[in-house]
């Protein structure tokens, strides 16, 4: 618009007094404006560990945390009463040095480590902080996503600064999982929350962990510095930088060129193959504790008919997905639990790839062809795996439409429970209650994660809560798995397998199965 | 002086319009920021509490009124994801985006304007044809595609430049090293535009009577083109730079994504998917105001270039 | 025909005709279905069965590109039609009626022009969810102010022309005047702008798809093919490369057409070709 008027003006100029010097000054001024944005040069570089994360962080408050990037950063900052051993997943002491469980299984007494201090001078860690942390999660005012996980707590007492006693409403054989260092299990400081404030704490976290939160540059990086006073000894690197690099190809090039040290969240099969083949870096892999599932909403026609759900199960060529698309970087799943769970069983109904049987089942159920929305979040690889699934379903006469939603919209749609299908995996520790209660309990109906609207195991869930002893537990959890997999509220597509790569400079790294990583044991060798 | 005042009031009205447009643009985006913040296990009560805190439960016109009132004081609310003031967040990313945009534009101007003049001077020659064909392809290949290809060539294969378009720490030279690829790709794609437009502007001027007279009087052709014609074409060329500035800001979003470079563009993209109302508003607003400001500055520059416009 | 003496225009017309034929004949000339996956044969190199190889799902890349021509042309034509009709009406009303109508319209256009077009399209697609219709509407709305601006400018130059004055003197109605004289005379320059907007629409569609905000997968659009192939640039560069070339060819064709139209249709425009942007 303006350009046109200018051109008209220009057309009328026959002779003009151009002042080149003035024009030059203007350009120079522009260059100056641009130049003033340069960050100041850094001084001599201390040992800094640079870790790639695939998307930005947003909230590090343990009561409200979710998403693996947040959880990975929080892992460096916070401790729990107990924690999972990185290598074996066994529950081992963390802030608690030991614990006693009463004969009836309802009273847990934890002896706390003494001499532990909070980051940034927020004083000593005491039993009161533990009481505060858990009561904060339970307080409806906090609006914690994890209050359900601690719902079995009746009261918390602090007889002394280094003792905390937790009384449960009823025995809960899986209680130690709930107070392990992850999500609601991370302990926060009463003093720090009081002074910093509930809202600001999310990005100014104060913990007792090996690294101290320094600052966060949105979209760019998170900087943590070593906690020299860490109770288990100072970490071996001075600083950890989590750098946001979305694209995996770019991250792989950056890793091979030494622009970053650790590649967290490695998913792309071809990138994994390339990094492995290149021999320039070390690639770790490990089975995760979660499966990725296609959830079928049983409240929506015709998915209410178990034969239709079984037909869909038969129609999907899961082996081809793992071999062809994932190039063998994921494992086959027989049920919704992975073999890393103590309670896992493979004695469940199986529905191998069989399009003819799928068609027969659909015919038996009296549904011809129908339209089905496959709803997936816009994140790799979930937005990709629905493509071959849609193609498989088309082969048996189901017109599958792919709906990839942005994360916010996806969560909203899924929690409304109106989506006919969705892709869900419950990431976390090998605590079977976590996926079972989240995915299949009536109490988790939307807005919970039970998008399937499945209610076939209410009696078994109650039985599991009261089961005492490993054998009884294994039996009842076995029944749950068999019942669920016969009813097919979800189709386990694959068992997740985690990959992480680092340069040869990195030493001492241990991969865990929680889909996080710890920088504490890592040291950097001189190049 | 009068002109300056008129321009300032025009600027104020435009900025107010931009504020209004951004408000309504963002309200059309579906999704619920409360849901995003609280995550998978959030209860309906917790969501409702948060929505009330954010004012999302009020009618749109109330939200708009409050928005304008606060905008006047420079308060564009807080990012719902980070809790920090939205404007602060955006201004924090402004240097990154400004460096990329101006560096890209500088490359584009340095390449585009001389090439545009050259091709106009040699209209119809082989070099004109060749440059114009290259420029045609330059505006026809998607800019992100050029970016991807350059990462592959210059980072992976040749290892000349880093794959990441921004460094963390390091000196001036380190930053410059990281900037070369993103600014180069952006600059070359915009240069193609500037070349084409500059050539047209020069051809137009070369067709004017005064130039014909100068030629008829035997003034050497080089002098005609580089002195007389360029002087007359400077104003339209400045206008071209103004028009391409908005264009290059749009391309910069894609460049930031390709090179994993922080900036307003990648921040807006993230905010759109996070349903971060305030942040999208502030980001779109800042970019639009930047376009208006740059064009206003160019308007003032016409006055310097052509004294007749400033006295009028 | 004077158009055909312009080699660029001729090339543009030939290319576009070819692309149009490919788009119309897609079901017959595509060797395979663009959607059918074959996980036993993913990321295959070019072969007799798959001239451009297969993608990460084992789909035939050539077939996807052929079908993609349809969607890209659809986007181009729809954006052109929408932004042209909307922009022309707005611009003509502003330019012809003048007064406060013009002042308001011009301010609104000025404000909308301050938004980088791609940013505006991005925000609008996010607002409507990503689909083919969203992309078309978003890009068309982002271009409407540009068309309107040119239309108004053209109307302003036509308005004082003597024959318009003459028609008015003989008592022609305003509407009739608008449609009989102003609209036909303003068509050439506006069509040139629309050609440019169609070219940019194709680039915008590719950009939005690249960001994951474009036409939903598995639809075979060129932007989706580039986005799909992005992760395999190192191992299978042909996927993204060939889609990039398809986009470039169509955009080049549209630009050649636009340049040719500008140079031949309207001698006045030729002198001031910089205007079209």
Automatic annotation (TrEMBL), chain A:
**Which InterPro entries does the UniProt record give?**
Peptide/Ni-bd, SBP_5, SBP_5_dom, TAT_signal
Give a GO biological-process term.
Answer: peptide transport
* Positions of the Solute-binding protein family domain: 91-443
Where in the cell does this protein reside? Periplasm
Q: Which GO terms describe its molecular function?
A: peptide transmembrane transporter activity
The cellular component terms of Gene Ontology attached to this UniProt record, alphabetical and capped at eight, are:
ATP-binding cassette (ABC) transporter complex; outer membrane-bounded periplasmic space
Gene3D superfamilies named in the record = Dipeptide-binding Protein, Domain 1, Dipeptide-binding Protein, Domain 3, Periplasmic binding protein-like II
Family affiliation: Belongs to the bacterial solute-binding protein 5 family.
* Name of the protein in question: Peptide/nickel transport system substrate-binding protein
From TrEMBL, chain B:
Task: Classify the main location.
Answer: membrane
Annotated compartments: Cell membrane
The alphabetical list of record keywords is:
Cell membrane, Membrane, Transmembrane, Transmembrane helix, Transport
Boundaries of each ABC transmembrane type-1 domain copy? 94-298
Topologically, how does it sit relative to the membrane? Multi-pass membrane protein
What SUPFAM superfamilies is this protein classified in?
A: MetI-like
Pfam families on file:
BPD_transp_1 (PF00528), BPD_transp_1_N (PF19300)
Annotated Gene Ontology cellular components are: plasma membrane
Q: Which PROSITE patterns match?
A: ABC_TM1
Q: Give TM segment ranges.
A: 12-29, 98-118, 130-155, 175-194, 233-259, 279-305
Q: Which InterPro entries match?
A: BPD_transp_1_N, MetI-like, MetI-like_sf
Q: Name one GO biological process term.
A: transmembrane transport
Q: Which family does it belong to?
A: Belongs to the binding-protein-dependent transport system permease family.
Q: Which PANTHER family match?
A: DIPEPTIDE TRANSPORT SYSTEM PERMEASE PROTEIN DPPB-RELATED (PTHR43163:SF6)
Name of the protein this chain belongs to: Peptide/nickel transport system permease protein
What organism is listed for this UniProt entry?
Answer: Azospirillum brasilense
UniProtKB/TrEMBL annotation, chain C:
Q: Which GO terms describe its cellular component?
A: plasma membrane
Protein name, as recorded: Peptide/nickel transport system permease protein
Superkingdom in the source lineage: Bacteria
Which InterPro entries does this entry report, sorted A to Z? BP-dependent_transpt_permease (IPR050366), MetI-like (IPR000515), MetI-like_sf (IPR035906), OppC_N (IPR025966)
Q: Which GO terms describe its biological process?
A: transmembrane transport
Chain segments annotated as transmembrane: 71-97, 109-129, 135-156, 177-204, 238-261
Q: Which UniProt keywords apply?
A: Cell membrane, Membrane, Transmembrane, Transmembrane helix, Transport
Which CDD domains does UniProt cross-reference here? Answer: TM_PBP2 (cd06261)
Reply yes or no: does the keyword Membrane apply.
Answer: yes
The ABC transmembrane type-1 domain extends over 69-258
The Swiss-Prot or TrEMBL record describes its family as follows: Belongs to the binding-protein-dependent transport system permease family.
For membrane topology, the record states: Multi-pass membrane protein
Where would you find this protein in the cell?
Answer: Cell membrane
Q: Does the keyword Transport apply?
A: yes
């Amino acid at each position: 618009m303006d350009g046109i008027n200018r051109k008209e003006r220009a057309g009328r100029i026959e002779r003009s007094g151009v002042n080149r010097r003035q024009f030059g000054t203007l350009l120079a001024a522009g260059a100056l404006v641009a130049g003033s944005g340069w960050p100041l040069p850094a001084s001599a570089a201390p040992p800094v560990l640079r870790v790639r994360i695939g998307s930005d962080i947003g909230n590090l408050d343990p009561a409200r945390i979710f998403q693996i990037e947040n959880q990975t950063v929080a892992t460096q900052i916070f401790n729990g009463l107990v924690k999972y051993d990185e290598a074996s997943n066994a529950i081992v002491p963390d802030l608690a040095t030991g614990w006693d469980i009463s004969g009836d299984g309802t009273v847990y007494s934890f002896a706390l480590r003494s001499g532990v201090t909070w980051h940034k001078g927020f004083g000593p860690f005491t039993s009161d902080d533990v009481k505060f942390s858990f009561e904060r999660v339970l307080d409806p005012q906090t609006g914690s996503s994890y209050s359900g996980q601690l719902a079995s707590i009746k009261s918390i007492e602090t007889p002394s600064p280094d003792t905390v006693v937790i009384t449960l409403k009823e025995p809960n054989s899986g209680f130690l999982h709930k107070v392990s260092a992850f999500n609601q299990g991370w302990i926060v400081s009463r003093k720090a929350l009081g002074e910093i404030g509930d809202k600001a704490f999310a990005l100014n976290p104060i913990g007792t962990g090996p690294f101290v939160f320094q600052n966060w540059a949105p979209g760019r990086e998170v900087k943590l510095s070593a906690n020299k006073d860490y109770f288990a000894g100072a970490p071996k690197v001075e600083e950890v930088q989590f750098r946001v690099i979305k694209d995996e190809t770019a991250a792989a090039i950056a890793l091979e060129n030494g622009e970053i040290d650790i590649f967290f969240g490695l998913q792309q099969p071809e990138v994994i193959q390339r990094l492995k083949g290149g021999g320039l870096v070390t690639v770790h892999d490990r089975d995760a504790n979660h499966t990725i599932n296609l959830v079928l909403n049983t409240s929506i026609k015709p998915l209410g008919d178990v034969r239709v759900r079984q037909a869909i199960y038969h129609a999907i060529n899961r082996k081809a997905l793992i071999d062809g698309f994932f190039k063998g970087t994921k494992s086959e799943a027989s049920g919704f639990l992975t073999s890393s769970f103590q309670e896992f069983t493979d004695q469940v109904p199986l529905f191998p790839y069989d399009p003819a049987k799928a068609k027969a089942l659909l015919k038996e159920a009296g549904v011809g062809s129908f339209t089905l929305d496959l709803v997936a979040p816009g994140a790799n690889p979930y937005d990709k795996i629905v493509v071959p699934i849609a193609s498989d379903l088309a082969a048996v006469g189901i017109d599958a439409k792919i709906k990839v939603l942005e994360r916010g919209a996806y969560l909203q749609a899924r929690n409304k429970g109106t989506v006919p299908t969705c892709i869900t995996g419950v990431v976390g520790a090998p605590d079977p209650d976590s996926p079972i209660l989240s995915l299949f309990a009536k109490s988790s109906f939307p807005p919970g994660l039970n998008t399937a609207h499945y209610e076939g195991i209410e009696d078994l869930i109650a039985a599991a809560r009261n089961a005492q002893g490993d054998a009884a537990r294994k039996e009842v959890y076995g029944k749950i798995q068999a019942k669920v997999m016969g009813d097919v509220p979800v189709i386990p597509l694959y068992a997740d397998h985690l990959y992480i790569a680092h340069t040869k400079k990195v030493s001492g790294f241990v991969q865990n199965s929680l889909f996080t990583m710890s920088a504490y044991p890592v040291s950097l060798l001189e190049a | 002086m009068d002109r300056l005042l008129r321009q300032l009031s025009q600027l104020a009205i435009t900025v107010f319009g931009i504020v209004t447009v951004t408000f309504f643009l963002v309200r059309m985006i579906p999704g619920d920021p409360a849901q995003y913040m609280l995550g998978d296990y959030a209860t309906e009560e917790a969501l409702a509490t948060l929505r009330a805190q954010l004012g999302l439960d009020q009618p749109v016109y109330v939200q708009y009124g409050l928005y304008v009132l606060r905008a006047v004081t420079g308060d564009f609310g807080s990012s719902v994801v980070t809790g920090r003031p939205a404007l602060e967040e955006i201004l924090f990313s402004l240097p990154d985006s400004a460096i990329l945009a101006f560096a890209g534009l500088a490359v584009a101007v340095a390449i585009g304007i001389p090439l545009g003049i050259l091709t106009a001077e040699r209209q119809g020659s082989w070099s004109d044809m060749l440059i114009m064909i290259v420029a045609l392809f330059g505006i026809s290949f998607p800019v992100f595609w050029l970016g991807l290809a350059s990462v592959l060539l210059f980072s992976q294969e040749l290892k000349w430049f880093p794959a990441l378009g921004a460094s963390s720490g390091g000196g001036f030279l380190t930053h410059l090293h990281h900037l070369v690829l993103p600014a180069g790709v952006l600059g070359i794609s915009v240069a193609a535009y500037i070349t084409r437009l500059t050539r047209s502007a020069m051809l137009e001027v070369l067709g004017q009577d005064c130039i014909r007279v100068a030629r008829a009087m035997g003034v050497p052709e080089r002098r005609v083109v580089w002195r007389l014609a360029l002087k007359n074409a400077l104003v339209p060329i400045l206008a071209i730079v103004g028009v391409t500035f908005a264009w290059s800001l749009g391309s910069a979003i894609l460049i930031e994504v390709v090179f994993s470079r922080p900036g307003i563009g990648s921040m807006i993209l993230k905010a759109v998917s996070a349903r971060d109302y305030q942040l999208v508003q502030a980001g779109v607003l800042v970019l639009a105001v930047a376009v208006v400001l740059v064009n206003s500055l160019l308007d003032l520059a016409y006055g310097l270039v052509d004294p007749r416009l400033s006295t009028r | 025909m004077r158009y055909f003496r312009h080699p660029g225009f001729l090339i543009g017309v030939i290319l576009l005709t070819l692309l149009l034929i490919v788009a119309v004949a897609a079901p017959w000339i595509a060797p395979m279905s663009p959607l059918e996956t074959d996980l036993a044969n993913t990321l295959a190199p070019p072969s007799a069965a798959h001239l451009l190889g297969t993608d990460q799902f084992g789909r035939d890349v050539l077939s996807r590109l052929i079908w993609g021509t349809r969607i890209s042309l659809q986007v181009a034509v729809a954006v052109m039609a929408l932004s042209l009709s909307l922009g022309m009406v707005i611009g003509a009303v502003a330019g012809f009626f003048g007064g406060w109508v013009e002042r308001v319209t011009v301010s609104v256009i000025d404000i909308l022009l301050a938004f980088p077009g791609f940013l505006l399209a991005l925000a609008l697609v996010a607002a409507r969810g990503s689909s083919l219709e969203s992309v078309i509407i978003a890009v068309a709305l982002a271009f409407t102010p540009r068309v309107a601006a040119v239309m108004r400018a053209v109307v302003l130059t036509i308005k004082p022309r003597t024959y318009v004055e003459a028609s008015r003197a003989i008592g022609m109605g305003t509407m009739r005047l608008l449609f009989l004289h102003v609209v036909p005379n303003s068509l050439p320059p506006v069509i040139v702008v629309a050609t440019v907007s169609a070219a940019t629409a194709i680039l915008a569609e590719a950009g939005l798809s690249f960001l994951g905000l474009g036409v939903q997968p598995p639809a075979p659009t060129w932007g989706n093919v580039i986005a799909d192939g992005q992760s395999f640039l190192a191992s299978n560069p042909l996927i993204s490369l060939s889609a990039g070339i398809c986009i470039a060819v169509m955009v080049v064709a549209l630009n050649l057409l636009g340049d040719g139209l500008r140079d031949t249709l309207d001698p006045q425009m030729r002198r001031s070709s910089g205007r079209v942007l």
